[in-house]
Design brief:
Chain lengths: ~350, ~350, ~350
């Protein structure tokens, strides 16, 4: 579809410098944009691209608008404004309400008339699917799940028995929500499975990435609060709680019974040990291990940057012998003091 | 359902202190339990909760039973006893025998009359499904797979051609068992695929977590022995062997042809290099890298705890220059000895 | 099936020492091979096995052929030659052309007559499936996807809207190609989703492992060039480009907008930060973190080998105090020089 710059300015509260009748049809990068494309500038690093850009219009901050030849839409938060405009220009096709003939819905399940249930979906007894929810191809919804209005399960998502998902939450393909937590009692060199009788409660406006797994609680529920964003291939253990609007990058693992505060940002492949508490507004950089509770907001790290392998091998050998080096340093100190006393 | 304390005591060999006619209906934590709930105390850390608990009964060790006002079930291994009682109180609904109308079963496959085959399952030629096995919605069983009695494939599990799964093994949703191993022969800057003609043999009483992947062998089989517990998002390379009753936490990766002994415990996100041998009774703490064979039982580590980012950056800079510091220390020693000889 | 040694020699350009009429029926290891098995020797480490082997024939290099009693097929690249012979001996059963009755194909999709579409597959409007492509059970192909000739999607693969996959590419079960990238604009303590309007372009002769995820681009495409090999459980962020014939081992994570060159080899569980550039012919060893661009071919590392936990704890304590030790060393130097000046 196409939208006029005037409409975008009014709808998203931007100042327009340019012809309100001009129309854009799609988004593009500053470098690739043509006259029908909407581009944006949020990172000053890309400012040099502005002069050459052939974009039909550029969303940017007032500070970047001076002397720009192209039409501009001035926003206090250009990236957020761009995001909303892109959602208008690239609105996904509406999915038809109703249940696909190849889907299977248990007679005791309730599916809203306005919901979309795609091919090869199965929905168990007692499940409730809310208004305008979209259940994509191959999804499995076990008995008693509750899917609120406007939820999107893109494709092949598994939602296990009794799991609840809040309004407008989006789940990417392959995610598994509510599989059994990892709980076993040791007994004479073997393991006795501990039934995982809790569930999972997902808030509203959450996004869950492809092939991410969120385990059900052992006794009480695993909880993902409103607005949390989980990237792909994340593992959330049983009875974890993640505070509102926290964002976890791909491949993070959070062990059981750990609580993460609100507005935290966890980098890729971070591992968080179980039974910890992390306060609000904590950032952890990629590939770090969080092995103790964190009570102070701030940035935490333990990821090691790669260097040429030969240098690294020497550093590791030294690291494994650091105790010895510390001893040598202490001995030198003593020896030196004796020398001076001579 | 509900069970009397007397029945629990008799059935699981506990000493009951309290009214055998009292009934419990579900499990709960000590803190949340009401009069119809069964709770347990296994970790002394939670002992303070005992006094306030309103639980209908508490499973605990004799040492913790003194002066407890609530009815107690005394067990030598309270956690294991609790696990078995919870399985009685929270028995999953029985699944009806038979093949769902939307499932597709190859005419040359054999499915036991007592097995449950759910919606949208496909079962290939020559596959054999044992008595009381439960094949959940969306599972794909390729040709020639052998599923023993009482196996549960929860949902959307893929079992590739010829894979064998032992009795009572449980596989969580999204797991893939028997995909091709990662084998390529380098040739003139490109790769020639090496056919992966081995299979996977899974023992009895194994549990495999959500979205875990176990590759088929290159020539011989990948082997998971009896009682092994694999958490979510684990990757097992081709021709790996994991010894009986070993437990691997989430996100572990085991590279090809490595052998792990019996009763090992591998922490979350540990990476194990290929072609290694790890003996019985080894524990590896989370986020460690095992790059050499381990021949002594014990605990091994290389995970780095996160600290404030600014401190960490300084430590890393020093680590990358450790060789230099070692040189300085040696030089100081020499210099000092010369000084003394003056 | 069985093949004569003469046929193998002619077909794959090997020198045969032995009876060309002899036939082999399957492959095996040198140790396990019987008279009907074809074995190979590529790694000198296994040379001692040659004398005892009962293999019907062994594929090896000229240098290893001297004095071998068994029939041998001499190749300049024995492992690659073995790979091709194994593909003949263990050719997968041909899949029947046509669409399975339980599959659902949108009337506006085009499926080549010679393509195989298995049970419970769904194919969206405008999708195009090429000649001899095999779409395995439970795969979901969204609208507008383009699958070239001879592609194999083994089972339960999700290919999201508009993704393009090149000829002969193989995708293992559970992989998700084209899920939304992780893009959100921060706004007043919450996140605004940035529509991911790019797609994914996969080249020819690529292999993608089980449960691997490749995100679609934010504006432009994510690109996997020809001949790239991706192992299981890999995460590729939006707008990443991976150069031809690079191989990534399992559990690797590549963050958004990073470019990896040609013929790179990335070890297991390596994490690569976003917006970096890695040149051609770079190798990174397992569990390393790449946090800066790499402009020189070579081997890079930062993985730490596990050692006994008690030793490790001491080393970590020292590492966290390295700054202090460096200060002590400097102070000793100064003090010593003063001493000498006395």
């Amino acid at each position: 579809m196409s939208v006029s710059l005037g409409e975008l300015a009014v709808r998203f509260g931007c100042e327009l410098r340019g012809d309100p009748e001009l129309r854009v049809r799609h988004v593009a990068t500053l470098a690739a944009a043509g006259p029908e494309a909407l581009a944006f500038l949020a990172n000053p690093k890309y400012r040099p691209l502005l002069a050459q850009s052939r974009a039909g219009a550029v969303v940017l901050a007032a500070a970047d608008a001076e002397g720009v030849a192209r039409p501009v839409l001035i926003a206090s938060n250009p990236y957020a404004a761009y995001a909303r405009m892109a959602a208008v220009l690239h609105a996904p096709p509406a999915l038809p309400p109703g249940v696909h003939p190849t889907a299977w819905v248990d007679p005791l399940a309730q599916v809203a008339d306005s919901a979309h249930v795609a091919a090869h979906v199965s929905i168990g007894a007692g499940a409730r699917i809310g208004a305008r929810a979209a259940i994509g191809p191959g999804c499995v919804l076990e008995a008693g799940v509750e899917i609120a209005e406007d939820v999107q399960l893109v494709a092949r998502v598994v939602v296990c028995r009794g799991v609840r998902i809040g309004a407008r939450t989006v789940v990417q393909p392959g995610a598994v929500i509510g599989g059994d937590g990892f709980g076993y009692a040791p007994e004479r060199g073997a393991w006795v499975k501990v039934p995982q009788v809790g569930s999972v409660a997902i808030g509203a406006d959450v996004e869950i990435g492809a092939n991410t797994t969120i385990d059900r609680g052992a006794i009480e529920d695993t909880v993902i609060e409103d607005g949390v964003k989980l990237d792909n291939q994340i593992q959330i253990g049983h009875n974890v709680r993640i505070g509102a609007h926290s964002a976890l990058a791909a491949c993070v693992g959070v062990s059981g019974s750990t609580t993460i505060g609100k507005r935290c940002q966890i980098g890729g492949a971070v591992g968080i040990v179980g039974h910890l508490s992390i306060c609000d507004d904590v950032a952890v950089t990629g590939l770090s291990m969080v092995s103790h509770s964190i009570n102070e907001p701030g940035v935490y790290s333990s990821g090691l940057p790669a260097i040429p392998a030969a240098e690294w091998r020497r550093a590791v050998a030294r690291l494994h012998r650091l105790d010895r080096m510390a001893g040598q340093v202490a001995a030198l100190g003593k020896q030196l003091n004796r020398t001076q006393d001579d």
